[in-house]
Amino acid sequence: MIYPLRRHLWYLPLLALGLLHGCASGPADYQPRPSQFEQSAEFPLPEGLEDAVGFWRNVFAIWSRGQVAIHDNRHLGLVYEVANLPGPIEESYTELQRDFVRARRELWSARLRTLEQKSLRNQPLDRNERELREKISAQAGPTAFIGAAERVRSQRGVRERFLRGLIVSGRYDAKFREIFRRHGLPEDLAFLPHVESSFQLNARSSVGASGVWQFMRATARDFMRVDGVIDERLDPVVAADGAARYLKSAYARLGSWPLAITSYNHGVGGMQRARAAYGNDFMRIVRHWDGRHFGFASRNFYAEFVAVRHIVRNANRYFPGVRLDPPLDDVPVVLRSDTMAADIARQYRVALPELFARNLAWLAPIRTGRAPVPAGTTVWLPRGAAGQDPSGLPRARPI
Questions:
Q1: Over the stretch 160-194, which tens digit does the pLDDT of each residue have?
Q2: Model's pTM, two decimal places?
Q3: Within 13 Å and on the Cβ side, how many CA atoms surround 326?
Q4: Where are the domains of the chain?
Q5: H or E element at residue 84
Q6: CA–CA separation, 347 vs 104, rounded Å?
Q7: CB atoms within 10 A of CB 158
Q8: What is the SS3 assignment for 109?
Q9: Check whether domain 164-318 has CATH 3.40.1190.20, yes or no
Q10: Are strands 331-334 and 378-381 parallel, antiparallel or unpaired?
Q11: Which CATH code of 2.120.10, 3.30.1140, 1.10.260, 3.10.350 fits the domain covering 331-381?
């Protein structure tokens, strides 16, 4: 069904004036200026990227999943509307909500198409059209109204999901930072899972990426074990080591962290071609590179990283009183021979469900007892489990 738009027409003049732009729920009183976003030598904030960072800050930490922003997909600071979704709020859109969002996009596309046609024909604009054109011009430039109707996009807020991920991240942050330090890399790369998966441990994408670090199977096989019984993409710590090695190689080949981080989404080869065309000018790449598959996600990946880095470093401002999960205290041991999961549980006096919960990389053949855990596999155990070295730190390969 099509949501009855006439119930909402009363606020369209206000939207054109931008008076409802700040209607998002949450700590809306905390709206730092873009210049307050943190940057460093490793993670600079190129001139022109501030609006995109601010947009993703709002998506992750301000706008709830009950809200959807209608915006320009090239000029992210150009937000036409932040609308409240009708009906019950669930993880995915309901049919009613899909129709509602589609209708809002179509409405704004129609308004922008009319604005473009009248402007190009030098026809007089009404007050709302003049104010809309002025808003577009101020945010994106005097000719940005051309083609704006084709650039309309919707983005749902994910504040609740980000908060859940932030809480879970407390379990892994210290381990991830230790890994990046050991590889000689900036520790704040530990924030990348907030962009990739919101720290959903069993995250799987529609294109086959898995785990907190969202490795594709083909790429993962260069850095970890992925087969029919073990998928180390699902082990956050092992996969973090793989991510560190990938990023170290990407940085060596690309020479800058904005490019290396973007390659995590777009691939090193793609970013090398972009660099060959535009050098290290990151904003020219974002604005002009038209390489295959370099779409909205790739253009915005680094801006999202800068946004989550800012949010996490200021977590109590965005999520007052948030308490993170305690740091991971599990102990890794390495199997010397193929061993059934039930035998591992007996040896270390750990309940089998608890063992499975700690070893997310074990697939169905292991969990159902049809295959052993292979020799050389890292097994995570609760600290103090029977059979460990008296020091509490059993011999284990570095992770």
A1: 999 999 999 999 999 999 999 999 999 999 999 99
A2: 0.86
A3: 2
A4: 5-25+63-157, 164-318, 331-381
A5: strand 79-84
A6: 60
A7: 18
A8: helix
A9: no
A10: antiparallel
A11: 3.10.350
Residues with Cβ within 8 Å of residue 6, at least 6 apart in sequence = none
Contact (CB, 8 A) for 159 and 62 = yes
Residue-wise pLDDT for 102-150, tens only, equals 999 999 999 999 999 999 999 999 999 999 999 999 999 999 999 999 9
3-class state of residue 175 by DSSP:
helix
Nearest Cα neighbor of 165 from 278, 322, 28 is 322
Decide if 393 contacts 382 (C-beta within 8 A).
no
Rounded Cα–Cα distance for residues 397 and 157 (Å): 41
pLDDT-based confidence at residue 398 (cuts at 50, 70, 90):
very low
Residues sharing a CB contact under 8 Å with residue 92, sequence separation 6 or more, in sequence order? none
Tokens of 180: 């990046």
Rounded to whole angstroms, how far apart are CA atoms 389 and 351?
Answer: 20
- The reported pLDDT for the residue numbered 386 is 62
DSSP string, 364-377: HHHHTTSSPBPTT-
| Cβ neighbours for 237, distance < 8 A, ≥ 6 positions apart | 172, 175, 176, 179, 328, 332, 399
